[in-house]
From TrEMBL, chain A:
GO biological process entries: protein targeting to ER; signal peptide processing
Membrane topology, record value: Multi-pass membrane protein
Region of interest: Disordered: 90-113
Location(s), subcellular: Endoplasmic reticulum membrane
Keyword Transmembrane helix in annotation: yes
Species name: Dicentrarchus labrax
Function, as annotated: Component of the signal peptidase complex (SPC) which catalyzes the cleavage of N-terminal signal sequences from nascent proteins as they are translocated into the lumen of the endoplasmic reticulum. Dispensable for SPC enzymatic activity.
Subunit structure: Component of the signal peptidase complex paralog A (SPC-A) composed of a catalytic subunit SEC11A and three accessory subunits SPCS1, SPCS2 and SPCS3. Component of the signal peptidase complex paralog C (SPC-C) composed of a catalytic subunit SEC11C and three accessory subunits SPCS1, SPCS2 and SPCS3. Within the complex, interacts with SPCS2 and SPCS3. The complex induces a local thinning of the ER membrane which is used to measure the length of the signal peptide (SP) h-region of protein substrates. This ensures the selectivity of the complex towards h-regions shorter than 18-20 amino acids.
Full protein name: Signal peptidase complex subunit 1
Keywords on record: Endoplasmic reticulum, Membrane, Transmembrane, Transmembrane helix
Nuclease keyword on record: no
UniProtKB/TrEMBL annotation, chain B:
Key word Amino-acid biosynthesis present: no
Membrane association type: Single-pass type II membrane protein
Any one GO CC term of the record: signal peptidase complex
Gene this chain is encoded by: spcs3
Protein name per the record: Signal peptidase complex subunit 3
Location relative to the cell: Endoplasmic reticulum membrane
Role: Essential component of the signal peptidase complex (SPC) which catalyzes the cleavage of N-terminal signal sequences from nascent proteins as they are translocated into the lumen of the endoplasmic reticulum. Essential for the SPC catalytic activity, possibly by stabilizing and positioning the active center of the complex close to the lumenal surface.
């Protein structure tokens, strides 16, 4: 039974690892702009509405709603955050001559987005 | 490294910061408001006794019983930064032993959403009006004031005295009732 549990948990882990969580760099920037925009807008709406109805609780609820919406929109890596994948260099065939030059170049490219 | 967790973290931190800013805004919008309202206090009866005060120095002390009427409209005090009001009626007087005595006679909590029009008739004081000696008998000037603490959602806890207090002389003899 213990063995079964271990196998099961390993399978669960691999399932979790297979969930795609990756966003490309432009997607990360877009996600951040989206959640900041949503929360700021909901904050302004909530503040004005709370001031009008004289209930600060409504302000809190509206900001929480904005939080929930931006969680749904920006936490999962939706396809719109994967529109600009990095163009990696094609895998180089293993050569014996000058092995140190080319990998460095590709490293530099990665750092520049 | 940008993962689901790191995005959730930054989203949560940003929301909390925005919420803190909003709370501060709520405080700022109400910080400079005048929370005084007119209060009408009327004392119907005063009874004075001279009894053993077992909490004090084992001597007979003055004990006053006050019956009062109270009316005030507290609606202007409430806004979106007020959770409750703590009202209390206090008596201020000077006696031979102390230049200023303050005794709380009665209090009441008014929650937000409750009836804000106070109209109380023939109220008895909740707490004993004990002097620490014989300072109440024939005291010419005992002032009753209604004050309140404003309990806010955020910010300072103001202590406001209502405008409209009543001053009255106390009876000259014990065990007699004085009507006003």
């Amino acid at each position: 039974f213990c063995l079964f549990l271990i196998i099961f948990s390993e399978k669960m882990l691999s399932v979790f690892k297979n969930i795609p969580t990756h966003m490309d760099y432009k997607g990360q920037k877009l996600a951040e702009q989206i959640f900041q925009g949503i929360i700021l807008i909901s904050a302004v709406i909530g503040f004005v509405y709370g001031l009008i109805v004289e209930q600060f609780g409504w302000t809190v609820y509206i900001v929480l709603a904005g939080f929930a919406v931006s969680c749904v929109l920006t936490l999962p890596p939706w396809p719109m955050y994967r529109q600009n994948p990095l163009s990696w260099q094609p895998t180089l065939p293993e050569t014996s001559g000058e092995p140190s030059q080319k990998p460095q170049e590709s490293l530099k490219k990665k750092k520049h987005k | 490294m940008n993962t689901v967790l790191s995005r959730a973290n930054s989203l949560f931190a940003f929301s909390l910061s925005v919420m803190a800013a909003l709370t501060f805004g709520c405080f700022i919008t109400t910080a400079f408001k005048d929370r005084r309202v007119p209060v009408d206090i009327h004392v119907a009866k005063v009874m004075l006794k001279n009894v053993d005060d077992f909490t004090g120095p084992r001597e007979r002390s003055d004990l006053g019983f006050i019956t009062f009427d109270l009316s005030a409209d507290l609606q202007p005090i409430f806004d979106w930064n007020v959770k409750q009001l703590f009202l209390y009626l206090s008596a201020e007087y000077s006696s031979k032993s102390n230049s200023l005595n303050q005794v709380v006679l009665w209090d009441k909590i008014v929650l937000r959403g409750e009836n804000t029009k106070l109209n109380l008739r023939d109220m008895k004081s909740k707490y004993f009006f004990f002097d620490d000696g014989n300072g109440l008998r024939a005291n010419k000037n005992i002032t009753l004031t209604l004050s309140w603490n404003v309990v806010p959602n955020a910010g300072i806890l103001p202590l406001v005295a209502g405008s409209g207090h009543v001053s009255l002389p106390f009876p000259d003899t014990y065990e007699t009732t004085k009507s006003y």
